[in-house]
Design brief:
about 325 residues; mainly alpha; 2 domains; single chain
Length: about 325
């Protein structure tokens, strides 16, 4: 029974690793659209069928009723689409179904994993209930947690590197480049330091070149990234484009504002660091330091007390022996 349980655990872990891996890199959305326009429908379908994993396809067919019931509500579909958009991934209905299928498969594998651990034995009723409830739910949320973690990382990278990109964009505009050419130039220059921000700016430039209105391209940039500074920048660019004011002067003022805001955030984090260090200092550092400093002194005190007690006993014995001789 234990061998079967271990085998189930190994199979579940291997399946999780297999499903969690990105088996193919996502192409740029503009390139994918161009491929769809250039290639015939039959050839694109056969190529897509060859790329898809056979195991994922079979598992998707098995859990299709559950996936259909979960994707009936438009609110759930819109939430998943927004997550995919913010993560920089395609957000079609097919991609939503693929993500929900992955979540359902993860939940089923979590149930098998809980059963494998339960079959080993040694769990009481409370732990068994927690195991069979928490493990499938946690596994069901894993793909969504992965997306949210990447979105958080993306927002952090964009917020940190946006002031440098704004400075470079201001220099390019003041040197005589148009806004579209300046965005493309900044995306090329930022590719080494911050590929995420460079990809977003390059996508805006490609959208404008593909015929998307400039204001719509900026709005799409704000929708793809839930970053306050970037949303303010897109609003500034849209307003500047509408009113016809100087883009260079607006970018220079906003760049100073963003840089000041970043410095204030750093100062706030530095001020919080001393408070956050109190708990580990009291619980871990001070006890170990007191142990290292006071242990030798405690040992020497114990030895001195023992020697004093032994010396006092010897003196009492020597004083009692002459009294006995006199008697």
């Amino acid at each position: 029974m234990i061998n079967i349980s271990l085998l189930l655990i190994i199979v579940c872990v291997a399946g999780i690793i297999y499903l969690f891996m990105d088996l193919e890199e996502e192409d740029d959305i503009l390139e994918r659209r161009l491929k769809k326009l250039v290639k015939n429908k039959n050839s694109s379908n056969t190529e897509k069928a060859n790329k898809e994993s056979f195991l994922m396809k079979r598992l998707g067919e098995l859990v299709a009723p559950v996936v259909n019931s979960l994707t009936r509500k438009k609110q759930n579909v819109n939430t998943i689409k927004q997550l995919l958009i913010q993560a920089g991934k395609p957000s079609t209905d097919e991609d939503v179904i693929k993500l929900v299928t992955q979540k359902v498969i993860y939940g089923i594998m979590g149930l098998f994993f809980a059963f494998a651990i339960y079959s080993i034995g040694g769990l009481d009723t409370m732990m068994t209930t927690i195991l069979f409830v928490a493990t499938p739910l946690t596994m069901y949320r894993l793909p969504e947690m992965k997306l949210k973690k990447y979105i958080k990382y993306k927002e952090t990278e964009i917020s940190y590197n946006l002031p440098d990109a704004l400075d470079l964009l201001t220099v390019c505009v003041e040197a005589g480049l148009g806004l579209d050419a300046a965005l493309f130039r900044v995306s090329q220059e930022q590719m080494r330091t911050c590929p995420i921000l460079a990809t977003e700016l390059g996508r805006v430039s490609k959208d404008i070149l593909a015929g998307v209105p400039r204001q719509d391209a900026f709005r799409n940039l704000a929708n793809r990234n839930n970053v306050e500074d970037l949303r303010s920048l897109t609003s500034l660019l849209i307003q500047t484009d509408k009113l016809g004011t100087s883009i260079a002067q607006s970018l220079k003022v906003y760049s100073d504002t963003v840089r000041t805001r970043r410095r204030q955030k750093a100062e706030a984090l530095a001020a919080k660091a001393s408070v956050k260090m109190v708990i580990p200092l009291v619980l871990f550092i001070l006890p170990s330091m007191f142990t290292v400093l006071l242990t030798p002194a405690a040992i020497s005190l114990v030895e001195n007390f023992q020697s004093m007690s032994v010396g006092g006993g010897d003196k009492e014995q020597t004083q009692e022996q002459p009294k006995k001789q006199e008697h």
